[in-house]
Amino acid sequence: MGYSHLYAPDVERDYTSPLLEDVLKDSLARINRELPKEAIDEALLKLHDLETGSLLEKNIRFMDYLQNGITVKFFANGVEDSQIVRLIDYKNVNNNTFYVVNQFTLIENAERRPDVILFINGLPLVVMELKTPVKDEVTAENAFNQIRNYMQDIPPLFYYNAICVISDLSTNKAGTITSGMDRFMEWKTKDGNYEETAYASFDTFYEGMFQKERLLDIIKNFILFSGTPTNRFKVLAGYHQYFAVKKRLRKLRLQHKLMVRAVYFGILKVRVNPYPWSSMLICYKKF
């Protein structure tokens, strides 16, 4: 799928940082080439200091940065200026740096080494825990429990997390840092074809969800936080929601009714125009 591979022990790095620092700096400078160094430096400071709060609160702040950019203030020629530093180039997928990294050691409350991490522009956005079913009792649930342990032992990794993946090779599911085991979901199609969705193969899951352009779309438009101020939870769209939204948007554009972008989905049953939507709330924003 075009990801570059890094074997983490070969990379000189700070084992207390979950970021690929050099990749991150180079990526931000490349994506925001119109901005001065002072703006990039300010964005990096904000990324490294997500302020006080729980793991979830820091992740909420980071996801806002990831989806919308970081607003920074800096002085240029003696005048204060304000700009947005983008962490990802959502318009040009090839302007981003994608790495799949294994053996990435991180030290915080304990020393841990997740199986695989997908980094985009130096940010550890996808954590994958993969179990080999050498014994009957080893399942994807063991991978889920391992990720929960990581959240206790190396919480900084999950400040910067978008998606968590658990797998025992036969069962492959994706969720978020707040998802219970029952909320991790399979991705059962590569292209929106629902004819063979009874079982999600290993290839279907990874090729369906982690094609570069699709992954960026999911990160930008299909992850949100819901709930009350005292009980927030992070929601990742299922494959059926993702492709239903994309199909609906294509129809709207073809009909020249309005140009829209999906910016929100949820779990309510509503009716948009004359079309029924079950288990989904979609809000549209005019370009």
Strand content: 25-35%
Helix content: 25-40%
Q: Main sheet?
A: 6 strands, mixed
Which strand order does the major sheet show?
1-4-7-8-9-10
Number of helices: 8
Give the class from helix and strand content and strand pairing: alpha+beta
Overall shape: it is globular
Radius of gyration: 20 Å
The total of beta strands comes to 16
Measured between the Cα atoms of the first and last residue, the distance is 30 Å
Assembly context of the chains: single chain
General description of the model:
The protein has about 290 residues and is an alpha+beta fold. Helix content is about 30%, strand content about 25%. The chain is built from eight helices and 16 strands. The chain has helices at about 20-30, 35-50, 55-70, 140-155, 155-160, 200-210, 210-220, 240-255, and strands spanning about 5, 70-75, 80-85, 100, 105, 110, 115-120, 125-130, 165, 170-175, 225-230, 230-235, 260-265, 270, 275, 285. It is globular.
Summarize the structure.
The model is unreliable at 257-287 (pLDDT under 50). The protein contains eight helices and 16 strands.
Strand and helix layout:
Layout lengths: L3 E4 L13 H11 L5 H12 L6 H14 L1 E7 L2 E7 L12 E5 L3 E2 L3 E2 L3 E5 L2 E8 L9 H14 L2 H4 L3 E5 L4 E4 L26 H8 L2 H10 L1 E6 L2 E6 L2 H16 L5 E5 L5 E3 L2 E3 L5 E4 L1
Parallel strand pairs: 1-4, 8-9
Antiparallel strand pairs: 2-3, 4-7, 5-6, 7-8, 9-10, 11-12, 13-16, 14-15
